[in-house]
Amino acid sequence: MISITCWRKLISCLRTSKATPVAKMKPENFTYISKLAKDESGLVLTEKKIYLLDSRLMPIARKMEIETLDELIERIRVRPEPPLVKEVVEALTTNETLFFRDNGPFDRLKENVLPDIMAARGAQKSFRIWSAAASSGQEPYSLAIILNEMAAKMHGWNFEIVGTDLSTEILAKAEAGQYSQFEIQRGMPVQLLVKYFKQEGASWVINDDLRAKVKFMPANLLEDQRGLGQFDIVFCRNVLIYFDPETKGKVLDMIADMMPDDGRLFLGAAETVLGLTEKFKAIPDVRGVYQKT
User: Fold this and answer.
1) pLDDT single digits (tens) 35-59
2) Residues 87, 110 within the same domain
3) Are residue 203 and residue 87 in the same domain, yes or no?
4) Alpha-carbon distance 220 to 174, whole Å?
5) Which residues contact 14 (CB under 8 A, 6 or more apart)?
6) What is the domain extent for residue 50?
7) Is the dihedral of CA 264, 269, 275, 281 positive or negative?
8) pLDDT tens digits for range 217-242
9) Which helix (H) or strand (E) holds 216?
10) Which of 68, 92, 116 is the last residue of a domain?
């Protein structure tokens, strides 16, 4: 039990301690980096998100022996070297992800979407899935595991899973299929971990058979990606929330053009197509899944 004296000392420390201040930035530099992020990745930065600049960009500054964010951004403004600009933009893009994130969409894929898609594709026995903004690979690998677990129903079927992301660095991690204990324990059931991963030191590596079922490639959703071909199912979850309404609409319209009439689109829980595009509509009683109009 903690003594009264200890409690008093703890309360005193909390009252007198101050949070580490977030680095301030010249208004013109914030305007510049905000425009750069928007133009290159669609990410909308507000002054409330200046902490993001501090946490994501200061490691780059320290590596270059630059002391402040202002100095780093002014260097980009004066000499916009493509490799440095690319590194800064990739550092700003959000790479938060985990295996079977939110669970619900993966359940709806198995119970509501795949049966319809497979019934409609019975002749060709093939379909394609696109994991847009795949980050370090947890989402597309989760999709591959689901399909592999359905082996009995999938006998004779061919499928392709394509994971894309703006960041080439994060895609390299995805292709390696190697994850820390912390990353693995975020969503991966033990029985699937044992079945599809092997432990190497402090890391877990996905097995070769499963890794071969996912193809990774760089892609910026602000650019025309129709060259990737047509996809029957698209996961574009927790991406649109970082875009402004106009950009959201353009991305949704592009995705619609890359899908057949009976294709299915998965969005994040906080995302919708309402007011953004006329090309998709919600599927009644199937939350977060949309079909073409």
Assistant:
1) 998 998 888 887 777 777 888 888 9
2) no
3) no
4) 16
5) none
6) 21-92
7) positive
8) 999 999 999 999 999 999 999 999 98
9) strand 214-218
10) 92
